[in-house]
């Protein structure tokens, strides 16, 4: 039953309806394509991906999962959108990379594969689930002792509302209207608390900014809107 999963059926439907456009770099997923080299490079700089067992939680159509596989990681991607996973699997025929995609939630997968992965990524997902703390705890369980866990999400404040909702969705049209629900945004203090409660140690908090004039994304110290968090499970 969907109600027993840590998932919002409306959110799943939203992304399922757009799934066929996931790999179109000019589509609604253009921002994901543009930020992927940044987040991939940052993840790889903190936990070298080559030869590692990696899990991408909420992998969607596989943009990050494939790029991690291209760096030599053994990648598993999990998601609850069948359509997104179908698109992800289909794209493997085009790219030639190898990713094991599974239709399963993080909590159920943690029951099955606890302590399995060197690296766990959960990017642009926490703001779309009813209980982010549950997802974070599952990610922590899935990591090996000493494993690295990465998150990215949106801060909750006036600036993020203006930039991520009004600016990105209605003014600049970077994202479809209704992509984000402001009340579900997560402050860094909340995310780090959830991580601490899940037994994860915070290693680095970094911001992801967009310059509307140059149309360029960059990693910096401004965590006011988008941000990424590197955590580690103790040995």
Automatic annotation (TrEMBL):
Family annotation (Pfam families): Methyltransf_23
Any GO molecular function: polyprenyldihydroxybenzoate methyltransferase activity
EC class name: transferase
E.C. numbers: 2.1.1.222, 2.1.1.64
Keywords of the record: Methyltransferase, S-adenosyl-L-methionine, Transferase, Ubiquinone, Ubiquinone biosynthesis
Secreted among keywords: no
Pathway, per record: Cofactor biosynthesis; ubiquinone biosynthesis
This protein's record includes keyword Protein biosynthesis: no
Catalytic reactions on record: a 3-(all-trans-polyprenyl)benzene-1,2-diol + S-adenosyl-L-methionine = a 2-methoxy-6-(all-trans-polyprenyl)phenol + S-adenosyl-L-homocysteine + H(+); a 3-demethylubiquinol + S-adenosyl-L-methionine = a ubiquinol + S-adenosyl-L-homocysteine + H(+)
GO biological process: methylation
Function: O-methyltransferase that catalyzes the 2 O-methylation steps in the ubiquinone biosynthetic pathway.
Record-given protein name: Ubiquinone biosynthesis O-methyltransferase
Organism: Thauera chlorobenzoica
Organism taxonomic ancestry: Bacteria, Pseudomonadati, Pseudomonadota, Betaproteobacteria, Rhodocyclales
Gene symbol of the encoding locus: ubiG
């Amino acid at each position: 039953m969907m109600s027993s999963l840590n998932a919002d059926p409306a959110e799943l439907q939203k992304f399922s309806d757009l799934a066929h456009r996931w790999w179109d770099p000019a589509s609604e997923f253009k921002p994901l394509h543009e930020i992927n080299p940044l987040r991939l490079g940052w993840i790889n700089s903190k936990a070298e991906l080559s030869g590692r067992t990696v899990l991408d939680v909420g992998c969607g159509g596989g943009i990050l999962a494939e790029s991690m596989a291209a760096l030599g990681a053994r990648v598993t991607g999990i998601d609850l959108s069948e359509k997104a996973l179908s698109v992800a699997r289909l794209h493997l025929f085009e790219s030639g990379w190898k990713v094991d995609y599974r239709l399963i939630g993080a909590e159920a997968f943690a029951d099955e594969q606890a302590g399995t992965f060197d690296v766990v990524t959960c990017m642009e997902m926490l703001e779309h689930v009813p209980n982010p703390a549950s997802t974070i705890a599952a990610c922590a369980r899935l990591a090996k002792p000493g494993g690295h866990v990465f998150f990215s999400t949106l801060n909750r404040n006036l600036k993020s509302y203006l930039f991520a909702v009004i600016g990105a969705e209605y003014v600049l049209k970077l994202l479809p209207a209704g992509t984000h629900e402001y009340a579900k945004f997560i402050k860094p203090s909340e995310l780090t608390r959830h991580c601490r409660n899940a037994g994860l140690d915070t290693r680095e908090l970094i911001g992801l900014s967009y310059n509307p004039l140059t149309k360029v994304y960059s990693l910096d110290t401004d965590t006011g809107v988008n941000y990424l968090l590197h955590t580690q499970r103790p040995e």
